Each structure stands twice: as C-alpha cells, then as structure tokens.
C-alpha cells in the first residue's frame, strides 16, 4: 500500500510519480526496473521514494489497483445495463479489460506486468495486500434469481476469484501468443475466456447421465 506521505502529496506530484512508474514498468518488467530511473523521471530525491512506497513492487501493484478501480466501476455499470445478469455482464467486462490492455499506450506495461506476476513473489504479495479492501459489495446489483447458488458474501468472494483466475489465464495466453504461433491472439483470448465461462455457467457434465453410461 502507498504510505500516507504519498496520499498527502498534491495531486500533481502524485500523478508525476505514477506516470514515471508507468513508463519504467512499460520499459522493462519490475524485476529489472530501476528506481533511479523512476525518481529521475518523477524529479524527486531518491530518499523520498521510500517515504511513499515500500519498494518498486509496491508502486507497480498500486498502478494495477488504479486500473482495477476503473474496471470495478465498469462492472457496476454493465450489471445495471443488463438488469443484473451476471453472465451477460462478465464477458463484456473481460472484453473491455482486454481492449484496454492491448491499446498501444498500455500494451507494454501490461505485458511486463503479467510476466512479473508469473515470476515474482514480491509482486503477487504486494498486489494481494492492496486488493483486500479496495472494492465494495455489489451483490445488490446482481439478479440472483438467475443463479443456482445463494450469493452469500463468502460465495461471492469464491465466484469472483474464479472469474479473476479465468481472466488472468486468458490474458496470459494473449501475451504469450508468440510462443504458441497463434494467428489472432485477441480472438483466441476472447474465445478461451468465453469457453471457460460457458463451462462455469452450464457445467460440463451431461445432465442425462454420467460419463460411464
């Protein structure tokens, strides 16, 4: 989490530091990123950085959470537009997120971020710490009559984790498409996510019998 000294900064200084971090993490994954480059771009003394963030992974996680807050607002809007239909809103949210990540100004940052997420315990720890209390409870926007489960707070946490895992899996495949000789990684990611979502929504077992019949 950013320290209170960062939150107390004027908005312009906050934006300058965040922009510097975004540019550095777009240049290289955080494991190779230079705090010296960040403070030079942000025009702050080196010692000041550690008054604002624990380390470079903490800064990167905060940048990710800034995007996450925007997606959360998009999610609420989609639920309202689709009368609380969870499974109508989710694929639209995924497409919105993927479109943002593949945008030219964001692509390098997110490609490096996904590389870092897979390979850095520090990044995963920092992101986990910042995610815990960022979002509210939006169950009231979901039409629960369309679901087979009772959407308790615990069940909703489990469902959100499952959806997030599916999104991360599909986006990771998009960024690693060059390793798999995928012709259209964007459509492949959309199709992969929709397939996983379909399995979650309708199940994969034939309701007419079991696999041994």
From TrEMBL:
Keywords, in A-Z order: DNA-binding
Keyword Membrane: no
GO MF entry, a single one: DNA binding
Domain HTH tetR-type: residue ranges: 11-71
Residues passing through the membrane, by range: none
Cited PROSITE patterns: HTH_TETR_2
Ranges in coiled-coil conformation: none
DNA-binding region extent: 34-53
InterPro entries: Homeodomain-like_sf (IPR009057), HTH-type_Tx_Regulator (IPR050624), HTH_TetR (IPR001647)
Entry-linked Pfam families: TetR_C_19 (PF17924), TetR_N (PF00440)
Protein name, per record: TetR family transcriptional regulator
Organism expressing this protein natively: Ligilactobacillus aviarius
């Amino acid at each position: 989490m950013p320290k209170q000294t960062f939150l107390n900064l004027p908005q312009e200084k906050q934006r300058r530091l965040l922009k510097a971090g975004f540019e550095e993490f777009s240049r290289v994954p955080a494991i190779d990123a230079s705090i010296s480059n960040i403070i030079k771009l942000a025009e702050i003394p080196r010692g000041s950085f550690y008054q604002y963030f624990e380390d470079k992974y903490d800064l990167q996680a905060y940048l990710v959470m800034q995007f996450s807050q925007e997606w959360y607002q998009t999610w609420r809007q989609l639920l309202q537009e689709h009368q609380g239909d969870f499974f109508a809103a989710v694929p639209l949210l995924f497409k919105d997120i993927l479109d943002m990540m593949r945008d030219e100004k964001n692509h390098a940052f997110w490609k490096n971020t996904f590389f870092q997420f897979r390979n850095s315990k520090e990044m995963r720890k920092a992101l986990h710490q910042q995610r815990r209390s960022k979002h509210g409870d939006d169950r009231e926007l979901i039409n629960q009559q369309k679901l087979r489960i009772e959407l308790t707070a615990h069940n909703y946490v489990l469902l959100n984790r499952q959806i997030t895992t599916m999104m991360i899996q599909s986006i990771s495949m998009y960024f690693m498409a060059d390793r798999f000789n995928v012709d259209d990684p964007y459509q492949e990611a959309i199709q992969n996510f929709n397939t996983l979502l379909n399995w979650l929504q309708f199940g994969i077992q034939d309701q007419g019998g079991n696999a041994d019949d």
